[in-house]
Amino acid sequence: MYAWPASEVPALPGSGRDLRIHDTSTDGRVTLEPGPVARIYVCGITPYDATHMGHAATYNAFDLVQRVWLDTKRQVQYVQNVTDVDDPLLERARRDGEDWVGLAERETALFREDMTALRMLPPQHYIGAVEAIPGIVPLVERLRDAGAAYELEGDVYFSVAADPRFGEVSRLDARAMRLLSAERGGDPDRPGKKNPLDPILWLAARPGEPSWDGGTLGRGRPGWHIECVAIALDHLGMGFDVQGGGSDLAFPHHEMGASHAQVLTGEHPFARAYVHAGMVGLNGEKMSKSKGNLVFVSTLRHEGVDPAAIRLALLAHHYRSDWEWTDAVLQEAVERLGRWRAAVSRPDGPPSDAVVDEIREALADDLDAPAALLAVDRWAALQESVGGTDEGAPGVVSRAVDALLGVAL
After folding, report:
1. Distance from chain centroid for Cα 13
2. Is the pLDDT reported for residue 292 higher than 90?
3. 77, 117, 156, 364: which could form a disulfide with 307 (CB 3.0–4.6 Å)?
4. CA distances from 170 to 98, 133, 233 (A)
5. In CATH, what number does 307-405 get?
């Protein structure tokens, strides 16, 4: 599977700061100090509907992580999956009388268009669950043969008891885990499971549903968590720097994935930091496909909204915060974009060194994009009120906003 074209990231004078970021597994800040190549895995979409603001906010957060790393002169190895076969996709295809493959391909293509428009840096490896199946099957067989998985009516489940570190990612108690498991694709009430929290690794073939050769597992399709584990281990290995996604992935997805990988390899940790973005709401509820309360990136683009303004609307909120999308949020972003473009359009302006340093420091401090925006606001206000004599300043500020915030002025 291919990703989307990369926008050029301008080079800036000097060097960026190491990123200090909130790690869910420790509930505190950690300073990320990757080697020459920083490694990040971000969980991708299940392509049964268009990209909404919740998606965009999540991918914007991890785009900032990449940009901070690039500014420190590191390379970035970024991997993202596409869950192009799963229950929600199959259910939507049945509901609409549509072929599930065509639905997945269409929505994945639209996602690529949205990411390109928003200037999100693409992953080097963009892998679909279907294409990953040949690598998933041997992992499930290894877990089963090691006694860390068991069969139930042809399905194969992972035993969470096999990982003594289970629970370290989300830090939730058993009751909270069970409730979230039921809400987020698990089946805690299925009779015969050794533990209600045990997640599925391989789903035996069902009538009318797609299935693949699973070797000794029989025909079927993979569970959600093992999909990402197989892709991450294949392209990043253990101990990569950041596993990212929305806050609703901390449990069960990232918790289960960490346990799968740690039992498979005997190593710890799966990821050095687990980083989660907040939820975007609309009309008082989390924006989600299941609720249908969505604001789509593609709809705004087709209505003529500048993608740079959409991105500024996302950047105006700290990535870990839950916030509400409103017309006022978008209008404020449109007005900010206009002020910034007017400021950098002049031949000279106030000195740029301070504002570039402020943007860098803000982003290094747990991706504090709102503080970075305020730094540019202050520079633009000075440009409007008193001007300046630094002929290169507008160009430097424009390149810094592009390189570090992904906004083209």
Report:
1. 29
2. no
3. 117
4. 37, 27, 21
5. 1.20.120.640
